[in-house]
Design a protein that fits this description.
The protein is 36% helix and 15% strand. It has helices at 11-19, 27-37, 52-66, 85-98, 116-123, 133-141, 158-162, 164-176, 192-200, 232-242, 255-267, 281-292, 326-333, 354-364, and strands at residues 42-45, 78-81, 106-109, 128-131, 152-156, 182-187, 206-209, 220-226, 248-251, 272-275, 298-301, 316-319, 343-349, 370-371. Helix 13 (326-333) links the parallel strand 12 and strand 13 (343-349). The longest helix has 15 residues, at 52-66. Bound molecules: adenosine monophosphate. Adenosine monophosphate (AMP) binds next to helix 3.
Length: 416
């Protein structure tokens, strides 16, 4: 059996791991650590919650501690790019925890907060800079950071970092970085298109897949309730009471949807908070901290909270709306059942969402078990899906002779 010491990690790291109670490397750690220590490029896919962060952070800390010169002023020796500000904080915390016995300087830099303290911290140079792409580019444009000393670039949630939303910023950053560098890509999901794109930025890479592609973490019990759109809130409140839901992370489609749902929940006496892109950064972090501490039982979030965030022992994720992008279903539900725990993912699905449902089922290669809660039967039936991306046609209603017996006033018609 692998141990962290048999993977070749140095004792300051082993000591930190012992204090954190990490006894055995997870599969992605066992495979990634030696490859990264050897200086190779890597594309690693592993299910949500299986320790990817330590998979890249530990060997990166070790390489930085044992190789290369100290960072010059306004230089970063390694950069970890992440899609959201919360994830930047979390990944930075992991680096700090794992590297506490090493003399390395780290920083999390993201937008929505003042840039000045980040510029000050960069003056002394950094070993590890965890950043969102937009802010990193701002810092570079202000000459606060240079990349000539850059040894390693990590893209966490790599498929998100490589998709269109970030491509302009990412391309600008890549053009500024030395071509001779180590590049590491980590994610729970990689589409074929993103794999092809990724391969172009890697040099003789190794690829690790610790499970079948795009699979859900084991330990997540999934189910869905079909319901009419306008009755989702009522059903959510009903299920919460009936099933005694305590801490719940609820995903919705839009920022307004998140605000509206929190208002409705507060009006019902629930303790709820929201996290979405329109909220000021300090309020976003505060909502997340309150939720983690159990001060707010319900956190309503858009997909900014779908990726990477680690809430210990979170029992339940509810998809109040299904995600538009099927991969986000894996990331959202992956906020539960982390680090070997179990958890539940419940989706409330209305007829409008059947195309999304069908795409999700094709991605995860299963049909979600359906239930209908008595008293909440959908009047707009959600068509059946076959688990392979197809929606079954609605059974045709027997044809009635529409005109027979109907008075002109009761006949359906369209204005104009
Ligand atoms: P990650 O997938 O990196 O977000 O990690 C998921 C959770 O697993 C975090 O709470 C980590 O602290 C925890 N974790 C990571 N690696 C290990 C390990 N080898 N042993 C125990 N817990 C771990």
């Amino acid at each position: 059996m692998n141990t962290f010491s048999s993977l070749g990690l140095i004792s300051p790291l082993l000591q930190a791991l012992e204090a954190l109670d990490y006894t055995t490397p997870t599969p992605v750690q066992a495979q990634a650590i030696p490859v990264i220590l050897a200086g190779r490029d890597l594309m690693a896919a592993a299910q949500t919650g299986t320790g990817k962060t330590a998979g890249f952070a530990l060997p990166l800390l070790q390489r930085l501690a044992s190789e290369g010169a100290r960072p010059a002023s306004n230089s970063a020796r390694s950069v970890v790019l992440v899609p959201t500000r919360e994830l930047a904080e979390q990944v930075h915390k992991s680096f700090t925890a794992y590297g506490r016995h090493l003399p390395l300087r780290t920083l999390a830099a993201y937008g929505g907060v003042s840039i000045n303290p980040q510029m000050m911290a960069l003056r002394k140079g950094l070993d590890i800079l965890v950043a969102t792409p937009g802010r990193l580019l701002d810092l570079q444009q202000k000459n606060a950071v240079k990349f000539d000393q850059l040894q390693t670039l990590v893209l966490d949630e790599a498929d998100r970092m490589l998709d269109l939303g970030f491509s302009r910023e990412l391309n600008a950053l890549l053009a500024l970085m030395p071509a001779r560098r180590q590049t590491l890509l980590f994610s729970a999901t990689f589409s074929d298109a993103i794999r092809a794109l990724a391969a172009a930025m890697l040099n003789d890479p190794l690829s690790i897949d610790t499970g079948p592609r795009n699979t859900m973490a084991t330990g997540i019990r999934q189910r869905m309730f079909t319901v009419d759109k306008k009755r989702k809130l009522e059903l959510f409140l009903h299920l919460r009471k009936k099933l005694d839901w305590q801490q719940v992370l609820v995903f919705v489609k839009t920022r307004n949807g998140a605000e509206d749902l929190v208002k409705a929940l507060l009006a019902q006496g629930c303790s709820a908070d929201a996290i979405h892109g329109d909220k000021p950064q300090p309020a976003r972090l505060r909502a997340f901290e309150r939720f983690k501490a159990g001060e707010a039982q319900i956190l309503v979030a858009t997909d900014v909270a779908a990726r990477g965030l680690d809430v210990q022992h979170l029992p339940l994720v509810v998809n109040f709306d299904l995600p538009i992008v099927a991969e986000d279903y894996i990331h959202r539900t992956g906020r539960t059942a982390r680090a070997g725990a179990t958890g539940e993912a419940v989706s409330l699905v209305c007829a409008d969402e059947v195309t999304q449902l069908s795409a999700i089922e094709a991605l995860i290669r299963m049909t979600l078990p359906r239930s209908e809660e008595p008293g909440f039967e959908a009047s707009h039936r959600v068509p059946l899906t076959d688990g392979q991306g197809h929606v079954m046609k609605k059974p045709k209603k027997p044809k009635k002779n529409k005109l027979a017996g109907a008075s002109p006033a009761s006949r359906p018609g369209r204005a104009g």
